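Internal tracking record. Fields below are filled automatically when a chain is submitted to the structure queue. Please do not edit lines marked as system-generated. If the sequence contains nonstandard residues, flag them in the REMARKS field before resubmitting.
Queue: standard
Priority: normal
Entity type: single polypeptide chain
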Amino acid sequence: MSTLLLLDFDCTITEGDTLPALADYCYSIHSDSLPSWAEVSKAYASDFAVHLPPFPNPASLQEEFKNIASRLSVERASVLRVEQVGLFRGVTAEGLRRAGREATSSGQVKIRNGVADCVKSVLSMGGAIGVVSVNWSTSWIKGCLEGGLDEGDVGEMRIVSNELCFGGDGVGTGDMERKWKNGEYGLEGLWTSKAKVRAIQEVWLYWLAEEGRRTVYVGDSPTDLEALFMTSIGIAIGNDTPGGVRGICMKHGQALKPIKDWSENGWDRRFWAEDFTSILESGVLEQKFMPH
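SYSTEM-GENERATED OUTPUT FOLLOWS
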């Protein structure tokens, strides 16, 4: 049975959030004055701070899932804000891809230890790799990966994320694509945990996971929480933060085991890992395990 390895991008494949680097590139092509990234970020933080989740004191993981999904209004407002200031206007898909390659090659964007080796290991065993991200640009993600990994391996990956809108001339209109159905807003981008769940289902269908591939998901943030529990094996990566995945799971009696314990506790399905090297060394990508 081969493995379908699904990876979040920002702060999972990469060591940190890449949106500031993406924004730097977009600002660099504008000669007109735009609100600063600091102003845009501050407005997002303000919206997040006043957002009221449906369950102020969540008593279960299901209530946590609903709280996280309820942030759609915050994410939607953020996208509308960036569209209105025109940050994406004038960019091209190739320009974003090239900027991503340069960001990784220069070290502005850093790929986590062990990612390249994990990717090669899964592909060498006949497995598949998917990247599922709420980042704003698939072209940017692909460029970053090409700058830090083997380009042939990147070509084997299926990347499911957002993308900017480009006109007939290939130049960005300033807007972001919306292709995910939502009852409240009609169509939305891949902005939330619920949209990420639907994206994973799309990847499953693409690779016919229901016919035998077992799925390993690796993510870092609460947006990944539901995905970690819907796949065969879920791994939270990196150091935990206040309100982070490991803390949420522990609060509800679902403490994650260190990935090094995989060989001793082969039937546990939720783990945490410091980096991808520890995931590879654990053998979890090679184990015979039940499919999703």
